[in-house]
C-alpha cells in the first residue's frame, strides 16, 4: 500500500476516533496538533490503527513515534514484510 493511501486511511481513523471530521493529517502532524491526542488516547488510537491495518506495533515503536509520518513509515514497512 502506498504511503499516500496509508495517510488517507489514517486520516479516516483519526477523524472517527477523535470524533472530528475536520482533522487533516500530514506526515508532520503530531499530538501537538490534535487537542485530544494525549498519552492515554495514544494507546487506544494505536490499537485502532493495528486492527485496521492488521499489524502489530512493538512497544518501543509506540513510544518513539514523533509524528504521523513515523506511523506511516512503520505501517508501510510492516505491510511489505
Total beta strand runs:
0
How would you classify the helix and strand content by structural class?
A: mainly alpha
Shape: globular
Give the termini distance in whole angstroms: 12 Å
The total of helices stands at 4
Low-confidence stretches: none
How big is the Rg? 12 Å
Largest sheet: none
**Which H/E pattern describes the elements?**
HHHH
In round numbers, the mean pLDDT is 96
**Helix amount, in percent?**
55-70%
| Proportion in β-strands | under 5%
Characterization of the model:
The structure is a single chain. With 81 residues, the chain is mainly α. Helices cover 60% and strands 0% of the residues. It is built from four helices and no strands. It has helices at 3-17, 39-53, 59-64, 68-80. The longest helix has 15 residues, at 3-17. The N and C termini lie close together (12 Å). The model has no long low-confidence stretch (mean pLDDT 96).
Amino acid at each position: 500500500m502506498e504511503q499516500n493511501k496509508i495517510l488517507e486511511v489514517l486520516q479516516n481513523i483519526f477523524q472517527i476516533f477523535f470524533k472530528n471530521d475536520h482533522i487533516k493529517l500530514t506526515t508532520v502532524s503530531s499530538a501537538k496538533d490534535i487537542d485530544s491526542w494525549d498519552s492515554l488516547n495514544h494507546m487506544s488510537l494505536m490499537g485502532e490503527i493495528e486492527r485496521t491495518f492488521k499489524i502489530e506495533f512493538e512497544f518501543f515503536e509506540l513510544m518513539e513515534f514523533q509524528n504521523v509520518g513515523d506511523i506511516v513509515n512503520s505501517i508501510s514497512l510492516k505491510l511489505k514484510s
